[in-house]
Amino acid sequence: MPSRWLNRLTNLLRGLPDAEGPEALAAMEARGCTWLGMARTLDRPTEVLARARRPSPRPPATARPRELPVTAIKTLIRDPYAVYAERILRLRPLDPLLPEPDPRLRGQVLHRIIERFVRERPAGEEPGPAEARLMRISEEVLGQEIPWPSAQRLWLARIGRISAQFIADEALRAREGSPAVIERKGALDLRTPAFRLTATPDRIDLLHDGSVHVLDYKSGRPPTEKQVDAFDKQLLLEAVMVERGAFPDLGPCAVSRLSYFHLGGEGLTARIAVTPQPIAETQTGLTRLIAAYLREETGFTARRALESVRQAGNYDHLSRFGEWDMSDAPAPEDLG
Question: Which of 43, 123, 239, 294 could link 255 by a cystine bridge, Cβ 3.0 to 4.6 Å?
Answer without folding.
Answer: 239
